[in-house]
């Protein structure tokens, strides 16, 4: 008989080792459970609580970016009497954003029944030029003028006009947002504004006549008379010649006490002498427009003639309407 060799019985039952599930399987089970009981499932475990997979079987991490919720699109139907400014204010938006969101330019109008999108305008992708001086903006208020806005912000009128591509003939409206350049910043180089029928030199001389008239407190009518007089006398040019010894913008004569030839050719001084009054550089030697009693009630040509004593007094009248336009454009 072959002897059977029996292995000794174990004196102790070995402990059963726990089943080790590959991480990929664990993940599958977790997903299955979540899918089956989705309505009552608790929040899934954070990825860091799972056994990280190792080796060749380790799956690559997949990162899914969160999608930003798109803002709800709001629209508004324009009603009779509406303005972009009023609509923007009523919905907590600024006027520039509403205009940009709807492609409405500064010169465009809105009409009843038009549907406007009430969303903030997207930020411009292109950065501002590095050379542009730092500044701010100002929203036009009812009754505002460019000069008032410039004064509030401590900058010149020309700087505000240049920064916004405006001229002195431009119209601003409530709600319009103007760029305000930094104080002391030089205005962008732009072609000088000219008035209808005038070239750059004539327009510059007209601007000087208007500016001095404003400084002296002369009325618009008085400025219009000065503009038309200078146009009749010199074509609004600072001439170094004229009839007999007449010179300058107003063809004033040294022989008649209006000043020396050099003084008369000084545009600023000759303009002040034409206006006259208490600030007249000539004092009482000559008589300017403000020195003529009742000049504002005189017909246009008669007021000019009272200062100039011309041989052709009726010729001043032809410039009344053009001079009114020049003042509106340049002043």
Question: Can you describe this structure?
Answer:
This protein has helices spanning 23-36, 84-90, 95-102, 146-152, 157-163, 200-216, 220-234, 261-264, 267-275, 300-308, 320-330; strands at 75-77, 115-117, 136-139, 177-180. Mean pLDDT is 77; it is low at 1-71 and 123-133. It has 331 residues and is mostly helical. It has a two-stranded antiparallel ribbon. Strands 3-4 form a two-stranded antiparallel sheet. Helix 2 (84-90) packs across helix 3 (95-102) and helix 4 crosses helix 5 (157-163).
Topology overview:
Layout: H1 23-36, E1 75-77, H2 84-90, H3 95-102, E2 115-117, E3 136-139, H4 146-152, H5 157-163, E4 177-180, H6 200-216, H7 220-234, H8 261-264, H9 267-275, H10 300-308, H11 320-330
Antiparallel strand pairs: 1-2, 3-4
Helix pairs in contact: 2-3, 4-5, 6-7, 6-9, 7-10, 7-11
């Amino acid at each position: 008989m072959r002897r059977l060799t029996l292995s000794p019985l174990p004196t102790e039952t070995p402990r059963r080792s726990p089943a080790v599930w590959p991480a990929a399987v664990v993940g599958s089970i977790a997903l299955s459970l979540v899918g089956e009981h989705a309505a009552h499932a608790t929040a899934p475990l954070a990825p860091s609580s799972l056994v990280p997979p190792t080796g060749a079987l380790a799956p690559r991490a997949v990162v899914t970016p969160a999608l930003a919720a798109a803002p709800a699109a709001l629209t508004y139907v324009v009603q009779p009497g509406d303005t972009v400014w009023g609509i923007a204010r009523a919905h907590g938006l600024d006027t520039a954003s509403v205009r940009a969101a709807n492609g409405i330019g500064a010169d465009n109008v809105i009409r009843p029944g038009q549907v406007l999108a009430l969303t903030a305008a997207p930020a411009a992708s292109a950065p501002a030029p590095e050379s542009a001086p730092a500044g701010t903006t100002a929203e036009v208020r009812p009754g505002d003028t460019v000069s008032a806005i410039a004064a509030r912000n401590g900058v010149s009128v020309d700087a505000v006009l240049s920064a916004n591509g405006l001229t002195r003939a431009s119209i601003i409206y409530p709600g319009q947002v103007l760029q305000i350049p930094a104080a002391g910043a030089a205005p962008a180089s732009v072609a000088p504004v000219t008035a209808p029928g005038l070239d750059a030199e004539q327009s510059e001389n007209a601007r000087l006549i208007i500016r001095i008239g404003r400084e002296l407190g002369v009325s618009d009518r008085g400025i219009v008379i000065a503009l038309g007089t200078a146009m009749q006398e010199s074509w609004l040019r600072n001439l170094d010649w004229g009839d007999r010894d007449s010179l300058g913008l107003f063809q004033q004569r040294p022989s008649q006490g209006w000043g020396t030839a050099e003084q008369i050719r000084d545009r600023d001084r000759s303009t002040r002498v034409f206006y006259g009054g208490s600030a007249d550089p000539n004092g009482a030697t000559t008589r300017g427009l403000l020195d003529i009693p009742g000049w504002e009630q005189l017909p246009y040509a008669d007021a000019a003639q009272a200062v100039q004593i011309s041989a052709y007094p009726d010729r001043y009248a032809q410039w009344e309407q053009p001079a009114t336009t020049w003042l509106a454009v340049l002043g």
